Amino acid sequence: MQSLRAAYVPNAEGVRQVNDRIHSSITTQERTADGLVIRYAEVDGAGDETVLLLNPWPESLFAWDTIWSRLARTGRLVAIDLPGFGQSERRAELLSPRAMGGFLLRLVDEWELGRPHLVGPDIGTGAVLFAASEDVDRFPSVIVGSGGASFPLEVTGALKEIIEAPDVSALRALDGRDIVAQALVGIERHVLPEGVREDYLTSYAGDRFAESAAYVRSYPSDLPILAERLADITTPVQIIAGRHDALVPPSNAEFLHARLADSKLDILETGHFTWEDGADDYLELTRSWIEAHRTARSSA
Description:
- This protein has helices spanning 68-71, 97-110, 124-134, 157-164, 169-172, 176-183, 194-203, 208-212, 214-217, 219-229, 251-259, 274-277, 279-292, 295-298, and strands at residues 7-10, 16-19, 28-33, 36-43, 49-54, 75-80, 117-119, 142-144, 237-242, 263-268.
- It has 300 residues and is an alpha/beta fold.
- The radius of gyration is 18 Å and the shape is globular.
């Protein structure tokens, strides 16, 4: 098991109360899913819905700090660091969108989340859509975007270089903290709280960034499979992308929108980090989509 930062105190239910010392409305804990230690946060909101939020890369569940308290008015929120990302334990065979989609279904079952709305931008996009293709009735709605989805592949910049490199030796030669620090320069409007920024850097320190890169390096093999499944996904999909994304052009969002049976596309005037640089718009789109596809309504 990988060493995970932050002290914890286990309670009677086996949930580890984590002290992250981060000034945020998000309080993290740890518990197991599929045999792995997963860092997560949870809050019981005012509404009846359950919303499961996934971390972007190279960030963590603290990416939702911008909208956490306001989105909680919608219902119960559960945010996780996916295996191998943030500060959750890694299992190499889960580092692909298809495998991660299977993990999400198992986690929902193990944690008895019922039929949660699923919010998974960036690397979460493929995992969310694979999960929706495997179990068409599991999620009343999903929100994706800013993640590689097109086939043939349409990514640019550093992401393209990571995917096309013959191996990750160049990444291993660097401290992951430095790689993430450079990536965070892409956040143009939002000022990261220092504790959140440090969490991002710590989460991928050493070789953790290089190890996590296996996920996007699986895009060439996984995305053709996903493309064949898109037309069969009946779950309502809200797609949010940044018009000026320098890593994942909005053509990926348009690719999904053209092939999904029930989708809505919104392109924000941001770069890649829509959930932070366009937080208010992201919140409104997410909240409206969940409200339009409430569990009670979809099961009626």
